[in-house]
Amino acid sequence: MPQDNLRWLDDWYQSQCNGDWEHSRGMRLESLDEPGWRLTIDLAGTSAASASPQRVNLDTPCGEWIDCAISEERFQGSGDPRKLEQIIGVFRQWVDAAS
């Protein structure tokens, strides 16, 4: 059975921890007042550092939205309150494609 995106992110994060990256760079999950989520991951020094710049932006009339991008060795994903799993999934697809 395929691993769910949150467990995959847990494993990916742990595999990047080297005593430096997780203290000086790492990742951050924040809530937004829109409302929604923002996931920021510094890719410098990780297995995903070579991920190509990409962007996905979806906005529906019923208020669902997601906006994810890789730019300047940083992943930034935002979305409405029900999109955290999908944000992580976009990051996972891009990391898998880069390896």
TrEMBL record:
Pfam families: Imm53 (PF15580). It comes from the Bacteria. This is Rhodanese-related sulfurtransferase. It comes from Silvibacterium bohemicum. The lineage of its organism: Bacteria, Pseudomonadati, Acidobacteriota, Terriglobia, Terriglobales.
